[in-house]
């Protein structure tokens, strides 16, 4: 029980700070107040290296959501990780994860952003390989190498900003002409952290981590770091990168939605839904809808954390089983957990008057008012329909369908700690969408024709019908199982294969050659060990000259005679 009291203490600490930060953000929003703290560490060559904090309503509100979800995850972990040998390691890693995200949220300085950014990548690697097996090792390696690309791009941005003598982007926010290159680098770095195409393969692979970690990663920390960074850098919307961002985000939405429709791993389906929603956030950012993207980011954090935690309760009840084809009839065996699962899925699908409805419907209707091409709008609404399709398919498999294995598994709710941690998130997922839209959103009046106004509803209904059609086993016939289209769609367009072996083969092969030529070749001769053995041999021969040896004396006399004869 000491472990549970420790989890309770962490939850109360996080919840208290979350409550205070949320109301502070509302006060700052109402008064248009922000606080900028600059602590100069040292000056070097005309460049001021400083530690900067920016306290405004955006950072406080997002940090309050991060702390609330983190506290719920800590409380949830008290039961889920029961029996784990390395509880203290798990607590330290989660605390480091939250601390790195807090540093990233509060700091507008690229150097301290890099500290939080790299801290997220490092701790995520340690958490993905928490269960030490080959699958976790491969997933962690793919995760950390994909995120290293973003680290390198931010380092290049830091090197370029030496020209300005300051790494705080607030001072250069209005000067988009001189900051174009930095904007490009940071935007590309955000694509790696938010797993947009072509960096999407690591997100489903990161499901090798424990489910509480997945709940924290996919809701408010790691994958949202890239979206949040683009939200803060408002001056990157003034040039041609918007078109590229729109294309990549729409392709990511379409790929993730199509892949989730043919996936049977419970956690991977939820991971692909996260990828789809990240694409929607990036799409809204490409249109310049910064505040709406932040709104959807906050709402997504709530219902996605609830979705992962309720899925974790189901996996815990099935003793680690994750294949949805072997599950079913949850509303009888686990009624409360299945209710949380359905509420989170309906919020993800954009069910009216839940949290996801207010942000998703707003993005779709505002995109209809923009001057966009038909293909972009078609892909956006088609991907929205796919979101509803895989959501209803998942609900049918888990809740409505008969249990395949019969009574062979003894379902248990445990101590009820996991269900209690889901309760707060259920309440927030139902009511907070309307609350935040009333308090923080000031969107202008949306005027659309009758057909376009009802387009979102029609697309969602068609997606729901398609989802129920896919739920039946007759949809996956023997011929379709082995067709190239199903394989292509279900494997994320072959991105995992392209991201792992081909991308790693040549660098690893080159590294082996360099190791053989350098470390095991020339450096063996010219390095410390080679020079040491060579000097020992030379010194030994020099010592021979000092010995009163007849052979040495005759040899030296012979060299002297040769020298006198030829010179």
TrEMBL record:
Domain of life, per lineage: Eukaryota
GO biological process, one term: electron transport coupled proton transport
InterPro entries on file: NADH_DH_su5_C, ND/Mrp_TM, NU5C-like, Proton_antipo_N
Similarity section: Belongs to the complex I subunit 5 family.
PANTHER family: NADH-UBIQUINONE OXIDOREDUCTASE CHAIN 5 (PTHR42829)
Record domain NADH:quinone oxidoreductase/Mrp antiporter transmembrane: where: 107-384
Residue ranges of domain NADH dehydrogenase subunit 5 C-terminal in the record: 390-566
Entry's EC annotation: 7.1.1.2
Matches recorded under Pfam families: NADH5_C, Proton_antipo_M, Proton_antipo_N
Domain NADH-Ubiquinone oxidoreductase (complex I) chain 5 N-terminal residues, every copy: 42-90
Its biological purpose: Core subunit of the mitochondrial membrane respiratory chain NADH dehydrogenase (Complex I) which catalyzes electron transfer from NADH through the respiratory chain, using ubiquinone as an electron acceptor. Essential for the catalytic activity and assembly of complex I.
Lineage: Eukaryota, Metazoa, Ecdysozoa, Arthropoda, Crustacea
Main location: mitochondrion
The species this protein was found in: Tetraclita japonica (Japanese acorn barnacle)
Keywords: Electron transport, Membrane, Mitochondrion, Mitochondrion inner membrane, NAD, Respiratory chain, Translocase, Transmembrane, Transmembrane helix, Transport, Ubiquinone
Protein name (database record): NADH-ubiquinone oxidoreductase chain 5
TM helices/strands, residue ranges: 6-29, 60-78, 90-107, 113-131, 152-173, 179-203, 215-237, 243-262, 269-289, 295-318, 330-354, 374-396, 417-440, 452-470, 482-499, 549-566
Cellular component, GO annotation: mitochondrial inner membrane
GO MF term set: NADH dehydrogenase (ubiquinone) activity; NADH dehydrogenase activity
Cellular localization per UniProt: Mitochondrion inner membrane
Topology with respect to the bilayer: Multi-pass membrane protein
Catalytic activity entry: a ubiquinone + NADH + 5 H(+)(in) = a ubiquinol + NAD(+) + 4 H(+)(out)
């Amino acid at each position: 029980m000491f472990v549970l009291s420790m989890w309770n203490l962490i939850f109360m600490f996080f919840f208290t700070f979350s409550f205070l930060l949320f109301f502070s953000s509302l006060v700052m929003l109402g008064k248009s107040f922000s606080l900028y703290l600059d602590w100069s560490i040292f000056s070097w060559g005309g460049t001021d290296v400083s530690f900067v904090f920016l306290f405004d309503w955006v950072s406080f509100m997002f940090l309050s959501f991060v702390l609330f979800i983190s506290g719920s995850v800590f409380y949830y972990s008290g039961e889920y990780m029961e029996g784990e040998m390395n509880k203290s390691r798990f607590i330290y890693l989660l605390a480091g994860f939250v601390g790195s995200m807090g540093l990233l949220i509060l700091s507008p300085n690229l150097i301290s952003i890099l500290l939080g950014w790299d801290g997220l990548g490092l701790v995520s690697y340690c958490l993905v390989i928490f269960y030490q097996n080959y699958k976790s090792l491969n997933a962690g390696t793919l995760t950390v190498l994909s995120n290293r690309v973003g680290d390198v791009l931010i380092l290049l941005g830091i090197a370029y900003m030496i020209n300005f003598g300051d790494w705080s982007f607030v001072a250069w926010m209005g000067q988009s002409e001189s900051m174009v290159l930095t904007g490009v680098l940071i935007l590309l770095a955000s694509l790696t952290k938010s797993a947009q195409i072509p960096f999407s393969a690591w997100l489903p692979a990161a499901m090798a981590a424990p489910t509480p970690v997945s709940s924290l990663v996919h809701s408010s920390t790691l994958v949202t770091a890239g979206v949040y960074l683009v939200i803060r850098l408002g001056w990157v919307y003034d040039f041609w990168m918007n078109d590229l961002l729109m294309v990549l985000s729409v392709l990511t939405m379409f790929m993730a939605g199509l892949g989730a429709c043919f996936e049977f791993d419970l956690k991977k389906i939820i991971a692909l839904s996260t990828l789809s929603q990240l694409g929607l956030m990036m799409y809204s950012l490409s249109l310049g809808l910064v505040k709406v993207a932040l709104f959807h980011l906050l709402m997504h954090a709530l219902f996605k954390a609830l979705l992962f935690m309720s899925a974790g309760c189901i996996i815990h009840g099935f003793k680690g089983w994750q294949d949805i084809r072997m599950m079913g009839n949850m509303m009888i065996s686990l009624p409360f957990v299945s209710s949380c699962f359905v509420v989170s899925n309906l919020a993800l699908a954009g069910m009216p008057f839940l949290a996801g409805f207010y942000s998703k419907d707003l993005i779709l209707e505002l995109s209809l008012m923009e001057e966009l091409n038909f293909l972009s709008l078609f892909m956006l609404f088609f991907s929205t329909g796919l979101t509803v399709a895989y959501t209803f398919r998942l609900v049918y498999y888990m809740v409505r369908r008969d249990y395949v294995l019969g009574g062979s598994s003894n379902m248990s709710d445990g101590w009820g700690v996991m269900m209690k941690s889901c309760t707060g998130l259920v309440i927030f997922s139902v009511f907070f969408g309307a609350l935040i839209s009333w308090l923080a959103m000031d969107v202008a009046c949306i005027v659309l024709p009758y057909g376009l106004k009802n387009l979102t509803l029609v697309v969602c209904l068609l997606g729901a019908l398609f989802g129920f059609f896919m739920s039946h086993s007759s949809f996956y016939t023997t011929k379709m199982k082995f067709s190239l289209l199903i394989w292509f769609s279900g494997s994320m367009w072959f991105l995992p294969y392209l991201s792992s072996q081909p991308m790693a083969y040549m660098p690893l092969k080159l590294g082996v050659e360099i190791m053989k030529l350098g470390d095991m070749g020339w450096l063996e001769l010219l390095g410390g060990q080679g020079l040491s053995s060579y000097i020992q041999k030379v010194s030994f021969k020099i010592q021979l000259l000092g010995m009163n040896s007849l052979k040495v004396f005759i040899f030296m006399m012979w060299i002297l005679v040769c020298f006198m004869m030829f010179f």
